């Protein structure tokens, strides 16, 4: 018997007045997987995630999260979710430990408070007032509050914004730990390196449509990761995509009898592939809009 997905979305649509924010998305998130949700500003990511979290109504489509329609999810269902929102939580006059303990008490099966404080790297600050923490430290408190309920499914919305590089690395370890415990994770991020590090699969959304969902190392199709050899010849930059970069370099050396100038071999990163996909989708949408404009009936000017 196959396990049902943690999240199942079919034909999801959301309109705000005339804005078509989400235009028919189909997506599954398997149990225990980490799905990175990527897309430019205004793509429809937050709208989609908020519908999954039960915070926003949908216009059309079928959605099931942990087997429940989020539009009808009760308290017991919500307790199975962990949510780390984009905006930082309030900063009351309580210590880090007190705030995490306060949230833990709201859940039926919470994690150990000190373990959670340690997991987000705040043991040294456990006795400090939350309001006296730095921005990045407060963000870690947000993450602690999102996971202290021992959720089956965690939504992380831009979780490392404002983190220093070291904090970012330790946060990645924390997410890997959650994953090792079997937690399903939906991670929305603009940091493509973060998506590549943590995501099993990535879903790319643009203009409310799902462009592609695939393993992070496969997204963009088989040719997207073909290496690029760059060098300079007679002062002019040259580049060539090839699956055999070593052979190309050997040929260049044989032809000129010397090391090619400014030689580099790069394999396109998830970020390069993503930027290409979004640029193509944006250009296609602009073309569609231009065609639609051409088909508008000509406006007749009325004489004043
Ligand atoms: N409450 C709202 N009322 C009207 N329009 C909205 C509302 N919320 C979002 N939108 C519009 O819906 C579209 C999708 O927005 P959404 O916030 O889902 O995008 P996003 O991918 O999360 O963007 P970002 O990366 O900037 O957070 C945008 O055009 C946005 O302006």
From TrEMBL:
* GO terms assigned for molecular function: ATP binding; ATP hydrolysis activity
Q: Name one GO biological process term.
A: response to antibiotic
Q: Which organism is it from?
A: Sanguibacter suaedae
Q: Major location, coarse class?
A: membrane
InterPro entries on file: AAA+_ATPase (IPR003593), ABC_transporter-like_ATP-bd (IPR003439), ABC_transporter-like_CS (IPR017871), ABC_transporter_ATP-binding (IPR050763), P-loop_NTPase (IPR027417)
Q: Which residues form the ABC transporter domain?
A: 7-232
Describe the family membership recorded for this protein in Swiss-Prot or TrEMBL.
Belongs to the ABC transporter superfamily.
Q: What name goes with this protein?
A: ABC transporter ATP-binding protein
Keywords assigned by UniProt, alphabetized? Antibiotic resistance, ATP-binding, Nucleotide-binding, Transport
């Amino acid at each position: 018997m196959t396990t049902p997905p943690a999240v199942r979305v079919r034909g999801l649509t959301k309109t705000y007045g005339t804005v078509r924010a989400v235009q028919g998305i189909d997506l599954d998130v398997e149990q225990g997987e980490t799905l990175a949700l990527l897309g430019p500003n205004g793509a429809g990511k937050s709208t989609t995630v908020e519908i999954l979290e039960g915070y926003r109504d949908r216009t059309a489509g079928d959605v099931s999260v942990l087997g429940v329609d989020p539009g009808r999810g009760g308290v017991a269902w919500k307790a199975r979710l962990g949510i780390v929102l984009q905006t930082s939580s309030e900063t009351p006059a309580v210590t880090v430990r007190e705030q995490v303990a306060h949230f833990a008490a709201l859940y039926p099966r919470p994690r150990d408070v000190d373990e959670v404080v340690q997991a987000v790297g705040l043991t040294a600050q456990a006795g400090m007032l939350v309001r006296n923490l730095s921005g990045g430290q407060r963000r870690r408190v947000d993450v602690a509050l999102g996971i202290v309920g021992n959720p089956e499914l965690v939504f992380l919305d831009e979780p490392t914004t404002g983190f220093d590089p070291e904090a970012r690395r330790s946060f990645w370890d924390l997410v890997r730990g959650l994953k090792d415990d079997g937690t399903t994770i939906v991670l929305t991020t603009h940091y493509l390196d973060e998506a590549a590090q943590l995501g099993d699969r990535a879903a790319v959304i643009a203009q409310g449509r799902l462009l592609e969902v695939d393993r992070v190392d496969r997204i963009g199709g088989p040719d997207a990761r073909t290496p690029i050899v760059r060098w300079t010849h007679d002062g002019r930059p040259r580049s060539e995509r090839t699956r055999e970069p070593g052979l190309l370099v050997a040929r260049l050396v044989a032809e000129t009898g010397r090391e090619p100038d400014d030689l580099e071999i790069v394999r396109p990163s998830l970020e390069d592939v993503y930027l290409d996909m979004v640029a193509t989708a944006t250009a296609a949408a602009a073309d569609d809009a231009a065609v639609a404009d051409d088909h508008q009936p000509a406006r007749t000017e009325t004489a004043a």
